[in-house]
Amino acid sequence: TIEVKDLYKIYSLEGVEIHAVNGITINIEDGEFVSIMGQSGSGKSTLMHIIGCLDKPTRGSAKIDGQEITDLTENELADFRLDKIGFIFQTFNLIPRASALKNVELPLIYAGVSRAERRERATKMLESVGLGDRLSSRPTQLSGGQQQRVAIARALINNPKIIFADEPTGNLDSKSGTEIMAILDSLHEQGKTVILVTHEAEVAEHANRLIRLFDGKVIEDGPIKAN
Amino acid sequence: TIEVKDLYKIYSLEGVEIHAVNGITINIEDGEFVSIMGQSGSGKSTLMHIIGCLDKPTRGSAKIDGQEITDLTENELADFRLDKIGFIFQTFNLIPRASALKNVELPLIYAGVSRAERRERATKMLESVGLGDRLSSRPTQLSGGQQQRVAIARALINNPKIIFADEPTGNLDSKSGTEIMAILDSLHEQGKTVILVTHEAEVAEHANRLIRLFDGKVIEDGPIKAN
Ligand SMILES: Nc1ncnc2c1ncn2[C@@H]1O[C@H](COP(=O)(O)OP(=O)(O)OP(=O)(O)O)[C@@H](O)[C@H]1O
Ligand SMILES: Nc1ncnc2c1ncn2[C@@H]1O[C@H](COP(=O)(O)OP(=O)(O)OP(=O)(O)O)[C@@H](O)[C@H]1O
Ligand SMILES: [Mg+2]
Ligand SMILES: [Mg+2]
């Protein structure tokens, strides 16, 4: 369960305050599939980073499974995240000098998984996103959509309970996009919580709930009206 | 005019050859608006980089306004590009430590434009993409879609004759995406050549011609069937 209460993230830039998240209260139950939409700059990635345990709020409360994440140290936050959360970044955040395989193995290295097992699991995951023939390629040797798929594989490798996906199909053609959404649908059917930022209505419609942000606030929160 | 003949771009990776561009011949007249679509990894960005004078082919010919670009040195290619071409990158390629304003001024600095004039032109361009209040922000202080808009502003600042746009709305909500497409439409109406990679059909339909790639080859080339 994710419980967010009166959440604020305020940046100070040369005397101006940017209220990236400007008073958000939402609850997300285990097993929900939620889409988050909103204009560029409305606070989607910032909100995702805070509830994904990658960033701390300026004030307010964010509880994941009862744990107040604002109480955790940087290291405790990292452990908590490794255990429960998979995060697909809007800008991929791959390690440029490491192969696709190594990039996907990274969370398993942190989790202390044996070399043989992590090699096998990372290989299978890259095959499932259509990159089985590019295991040794580095990010600069991959297309935009291929890099996005490596980022997706890495986010899912630890079998996380909660998946945050920040525009996961933004660089994918409709066929690859459909394959990725099928993976997210099947994870949802297995009981995972999926929180997805997208600006494409057909992608958003895979979820059963839509939260819309505007200027750091929630302006809409309810069931998705599928077409 | 862009004349591409028997173009190949082949990468060698550990004994395997990747034919990113695998025999392409196309002509694009001045003032055309062309969409390029195709699966992830089909060669769109690679083709764009070669005809946008950012990369050289393995073999084959690419002429822009009669100039064979494979004959140019790195420096000559850079001058040619600065003068004729604006390129919006799929992964933005902004200078991380420079402000949005400085990033957009960069082509004008290379072109020897006076400080006062480039400051004014870069400011106007950033205002036209909705970032007039973020001139001093650095890329890491901007959302994904805001970074994309800085990349767009920078590509257009030199008033280029040919605009290459590699998924320019991939990180933009529908409202910002519509504003960007309106800018590209108006540049086309002014007589510019626009070549646009996208995976979204509604974006592709702004063009009057569609080229579809598959495994580094052209499999479709003709008028766009608008809905
Ligand atoms: N430096 C490189 N070394 C090896 N292979 C490369 C390199 N750059 C690109 N490739 C490969 O060339 C092929 C075409 O890449 P390209 O970036 O042109 O695809 P794309 O159509 O733009 O894909 P996307 O829609 O995912 O952005 C891909 O298989 C890619 O992995
Ligand atoms: N480090 C920072 N310093 C200052 N402002 C920031 C910083 N990070 C984000 N912002 C600002 O906070 C606001 C919200 O950013 P956020 O990345 O959450 O938007 P978003 O909804 O994900 O947008 P997009 O759809 O463009 O990705 C934006 O105005 C952004 O510029
Ligand atoms: Mg974002
Ligand atoms: Mg590409």
Structure, explained:
The structure is a homodimer of 227-residue chains. With 227 residues, chain A is α/β, with parallel strands linked by helices. Chain A is 34% helix and 29% strand. Chain A has seven helices and ten strands. Chain A has helices spanning 44-51, 74-84, 100-110, 115-128, 144-156, 174-189, 201-204; strands spanning 2-13, 16-28, 33-38, 59-64, 67-68, 85-88, 162-166, 193-197, 209-214, 217-223. In chain A, the strands form two sheets. Chain A has a six-stranded mixed beta sheet with strand order 6-7-8-3-9-10, with helices on both faces. In chain A, a hairpin with a 2-residue loop joins strand 4 (59-64) and strand 5. In chain A, helix 3 packs across helix 4. The longest helix of chain A has 16 residues, at 174-189. The radius of gyration of chain A is 17 Å and the shape is globular. Chain A starts with a strand and ends with a strand. The relative contact order of chain A is 0.19. The model of chain A has no long low-confidence stretch (mean pLDDT 95). Chain A binds chain B through residues 11, 13-14, 37-42, 44-46, 90-91, 136-137, 141-146, 148-149, 166-167, 170-177, 199-200, and chain B through 11, 13-14, 37-42, 44-46, 90-91, 136-137, 141, 143-146, 148-149, 166-167, 170-177, 199-200. The complex binds adenosine-5'-triphosphate (2 copies) and magnesium ion (2 copies).
How is this structure best summarized?
The first copy, chain A, has 227 residues and is an alpha/beta fold. Chain A is 34% helix and 29% strand. Chain A has a six-stranded mixed beta sheet, with helices on both faces. In chain A, strands 2-1-4-5 form a four-stranded antiparallel beta sheet, with helices on one face.
